[in-house]
Amino acid sequence: MNSLKFQDRLLDLQDNLLNFAYMLTANREEAKDLLQDTTLKALDNEDKYIDNVNFKGWVFTIMRNIFINNYRRVVRNQTIIDQTEDLYHLNLPQDSGFTSPEGSFTVKEITKAINSFGEEYRVPFAMHVAGYKYHEIAEKMDLPLGTVKSRIFFARQRLQEILKDYK
Asked: What is the DSSP letter of 130?
């Protein structure tokens, strides 16, 4: 294949390549960068293309490989290697998301708080937490839908108020 024909075929694929790049990166600017890198790499390796090979597949494979290599490079750059003599960085306490052990709730505490509600609030709230839909709760309890929604809403508010000291 001559160089002009190669370039024409590559130009014809630009829209498809951009769509594929966008699918890989989910970012318009990164997709454009990936398209540019792929086009340059394909042009640099024009002499390695063999005529009887699927041209579109060849170019898409180049793009996929560039994307994978870039991803691996980013992951590698974000990996922290502790090279301190006493492994100081590895021995630092890990952040669990809670500032203290008291910051997490136990199931007992939550259940106790829910059980402190009156039955008119506890039953619909417990059913909702168990996965029942509003209309199913309303049918089972023979209540209007709005009443069920408001009771669940007030039960949530009360639960937040009871457990407000926990963060």
From this structure: T
Nearest to 17 by CA among 74, 54, 53, 64: 64
Structure-token pair, residue 20: 């594929």
To the nearest 5 percent, what fractions of the chain are helix, strand and coil? Answer: 70, 0, 30
Query: Which pLDDT belongs to residue 85?
Result: 67
CA dist., res. 124 & res. 138, Å (int):
8
Q: Which value, in Å, is the radius of gyration of the alpha carbons in the chain?
A: 30
DSSP characters over 111-157: HHHHHTS-HHHHHHHHHHHTT--HHHHHHHHT--HHHHHHHHHHHHH
* Mean pLDDT per 10-residue section of the chain, whose length is 167 residues: 89 95 92 95 93 91 93 80 62 50 62 85 87 90 92 89 70
pTM for this entry: 0.50
Is residue 43 within 8 Å of 10, Cβ to Cβ? Answer: yes
Q: Which residues, 6+ apart, have CB-to-CB distance to 148 below 8 Å?
A: 124, 134, 137, 138, 141
Query: How confident is the model at residue 128, as a pLDDT?
Result: 87
